[in-house]
């Protein structure tokens, strides 16, 4: 069966390679290339902590993996290792080029061996006052057991010896502190800007740290662990979700290592000592690397006021029409017509304006919101707490299992409760991934509902980078549907009955089947039929088979998929007529959009859900229709602009070779995100 599908892990690595292509592309602004290197690394860390960890567990099942309808995990792990090794070479090449290009711009990354004389006093002070107090080395003794090293930090493995070679060397491990910036900008002198990795500042000060030991020669090598981070929950209904998450966050630090990166120049004997001490048996966990690890920190590389080396930021002001709405007031504007925001082409701050109006409006009775990931000092949370202080009844469904944001969400839950906000902490057995905000307002003696439905999180920080859609509507039936979903959070034994919204895990699978089947039936009856889908991930086998069937029945199927893509496309695939592209550019494509031709009455839907089994079966997701004809046209135009991209679109073919789609002869260049920036300013 597997010649019809590919492993989602392998397809995900292909997506991350598209990120790496941006880092290597000299036409991308230089500091953005640095950031893409960081994003690639951060992605890869999460991939190992979650996907590889899961595969390693599955590999222990022997032949039983066949029952799960997945490719052989042992084979997949082998493929992953060879792809990661190949991509690692590309990464190093791109990184070295970036370092060279930064130097051309008089930005130099220096190490502990090349600190100019005029900077040495500053560096000694910085080390002594800020770095040294945080360093507590652990000496490696052959008999003593080493404490378990943590997952997130990096470490320096240090070999202490004497320059004259006498005596036995000692060994130590130092945790690189995570509460200091990874990059320090040295005081300006002359035209050059000098930057140092924190690792090298520690290397610079090793003699001060080990001052009282009889050594004068220090060698140091970076090491880093990536642990299994899939949170394990048993189905013990007596434990509160809060306790489970808190407990398993501790467990995450103790997950088994799925990857140990080490500086490849480390002497073999020292490496053997470390692997023995750390119980790292088996070479499949060991990945030789370069001098620095945790390159995800490149995401926060100093910007040095060099806006000439960055993309222009997205507009923070609202287009004229939206300014009028904000001035007039959202409630009266929404009674006239729905509002669709295309973020970040429209600023997310417009939604903050909406929440501010809601929090102060004397007629608003209650606000209900789902929370998956919030910004660190969230404006959204502030507005909701202000609403509670203003006497509104505020209820927030906080998802305690938002991966890697679990701790933050528990902290928010506590903060909300201190501020008079009612918190529902998760739904047993399901993740709440819907992006819903429901406002109930007393108008002329009855309650009128206003609903905000999004494809992405209510998060003003990620909204600067993630491309999403957000619908604001006063439609009464959509309001009633949203209310039924919030009611389900309170009484989870009763599936919500909905008129317009489609909710997973109750109706989404059937909805997708019915919509695709309608297009198949139309095609068979000679009626033009088409399906255009934009998602982040597509690896649900049932949906893939349906799309194969649709294409083979004559339905025009077009797919824009950012990440995992388990379908096989191209000339000798199960459905040769299916076309698929993936776009990686200035913004991270995140919106989910489904367009169905549906005979003569086209349908457009936005969604919080991707097409992965978990979105259909294990999460609360919301798909919502765009009922206003003008807004539907906006979305159709949005898809067409992206579909015509011939600058940043990669063709998703059988081999996932990440070949760029080039303009045909006489065709104009279309870089969809740039086109949309101009086009959507007029909406």
What is this structure, in a nutshell?
The protein is α/β, with parallel strands linked by helices. 40% of the residues are buried.
Task: Provide an overview of this structure.
- The structure is a single chain.
- By secondary structure, the chain is of the alpha/beta class.
- The protein has four domains: 9-104, Methane Monooxygenase Hydroxylase, Chain G, domain 1 (Up-down Bundle); 106-230 and 258-310, Polyphosphate kinase middle domain (polyphosphate kinase like), CATH 3.30.1840.10; 320-500, Endonuclease Chain A (Endonuclease, Chain A, 2-Layer Sandwich); 503-682, Endonuclease Chain A (Endonuclease, Chain A).
- Helix content is 37%, strand content 21%.
- It contains 19 helices and 27 strands.
- The strands form four sheets. Strands 14, 18, 19, 20, 21, 23, 24, 25, 26 and 27 form a ten-stranded mixed β-sheet that branches.
- Strand 23 and strand 24 (603-607) form a beta hairpin.
- The protein is globular, with a radius of gyration of 27 Å.
- Mean pLDDT is 90; it is low at 231-254.
């Amino acid at each position: 069966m597997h010649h019809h599908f590919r492993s989602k892990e392998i397809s995900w690595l292909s997506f991350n390679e598209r990120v790496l292509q941006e880092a290597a592309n000299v036409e991308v602004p230089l500091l953005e290339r640095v950031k893409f290197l960081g994003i690639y690394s951060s992605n890869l860390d999460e991939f190992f902590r979650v996907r590889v960890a899961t595969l390693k567990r599955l590999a222990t099942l022997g032949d039983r993996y066949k029952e799960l309808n997945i490719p052989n995990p042992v084979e997949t792990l082998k493929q992953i290792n060879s792809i990661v090794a190949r991509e690692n070479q590309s990464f190093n090449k791109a990184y070295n080029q970036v370092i060279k290009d930064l130097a051309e711009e008089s930005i130099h990354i220096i190490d502990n061996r090349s600190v100019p004389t005029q900077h040495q006093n500053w560096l000694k002070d910085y080390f002594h006052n800020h770095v040294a107090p945080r360093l507590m080395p652990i000496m490696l003794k052959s008999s003593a057991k080493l404490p378990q090293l943590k997952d997130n930090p990096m470490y320096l493995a240090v070999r202490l010896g004497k320059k004259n070679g006498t005596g036995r060397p000692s060994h130590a491990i130092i945790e690189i502190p995570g509460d200091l910036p990874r990059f320090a900008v040295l005081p300006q002198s002359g035209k050059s800007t000098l930057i140092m990795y924190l690792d090298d500042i520690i290397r610079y000060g090793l003699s001060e740290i080990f001052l009282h030991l009889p050594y004068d020669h220090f060698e140091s090598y970076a090491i880093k662990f990536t642990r299994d981070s899939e949170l394990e929950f048993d189905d013990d209904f007596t434990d509160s979700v809060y306790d489970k998450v808190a407990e398993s966050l501790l467990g995450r630090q103790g997950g088994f290592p799925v990857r140990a990166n080490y500086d490849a120049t480390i002497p073999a004997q020292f490496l053997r000592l470390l692997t023995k001490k750390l119980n790292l048996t088996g070479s499949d966990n060991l990945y030789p690397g370069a001098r620095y690890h945790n390159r995800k920190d490149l995401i926060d590389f100093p910007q040095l006021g060099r806006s000439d080396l960055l993309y222009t930021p997205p507009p923070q002001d609202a287009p004229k029409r939206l300014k009028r709405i904000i001035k007039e007031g959202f409630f009266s504007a929404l009674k006239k017509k729905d509002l669709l925001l295309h973020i970040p082409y429209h600023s997310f701050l417009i939604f903050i304006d909406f929440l501010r109006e809601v929090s102060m409006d004397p007629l608003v009775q209650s606000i209900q919101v789902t929370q998956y990931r919030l910004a660190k000092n969230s404006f959204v949370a502030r507005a909701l707490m202000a609403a509670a202080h203003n006497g509104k009844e505020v209820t927030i469904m906080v998802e305690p299992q938002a991966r890697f944001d679990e701790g933050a969400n528990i902290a928010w839950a506590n903060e909300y409760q201190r501020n008079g906000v009612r918190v529902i902490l998760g739904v047993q057995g399901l993740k709440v991934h819907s992006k819903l905000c429901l406002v109930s307002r007393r108008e002329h003696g009855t309650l009128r509902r206003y609903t905000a439905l999004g494809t992405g999180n209510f998060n003003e920080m990620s909204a600067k980078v993630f491309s999403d859609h957000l619908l604001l509507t006063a439609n009464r039936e959509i309001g009633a549907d949203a209310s039924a979903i919030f009611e389900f959070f309170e009484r989870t034994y009763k599936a919500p009955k909905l008129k317009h919204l489609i909710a997973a895990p109750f109706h989404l699978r059937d909805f997708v089947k019915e919509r695709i089947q309608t297009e198949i039936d139309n095609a068979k009856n000679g009626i033009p039929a088409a399906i255009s889908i934009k998602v982040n991930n597509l690896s649900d086998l049932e949906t893939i088979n349906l799309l194969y069937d649709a294409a083979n029945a004559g339905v025009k199927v077009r797919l824009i998929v950012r990440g995992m893509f388990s379908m096989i496309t191209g000339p000798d695939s199960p459905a040769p007529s299916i076309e698929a592209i993936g776009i990686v550019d200035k913004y991270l494509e995140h919106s989910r959009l489904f367009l169905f031709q549906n005979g003569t009455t086209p349908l457009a839907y936005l969604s919080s859900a991707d097409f992965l089994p978990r979105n259909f079966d294990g999460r609360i997701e919301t798909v919502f229709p765009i009922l206003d004809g003008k807004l539907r046209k906006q979305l159709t135009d949005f898809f067409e602009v992206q579909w015509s991209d011939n600058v940043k679109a990669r063709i998703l073919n059988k081999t996932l070779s990440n070949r760029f789609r080039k303009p045909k002869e006489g065709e104009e260049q279309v870089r969809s995100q740039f086109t949309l920036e101009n086009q959507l300013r007029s909406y």
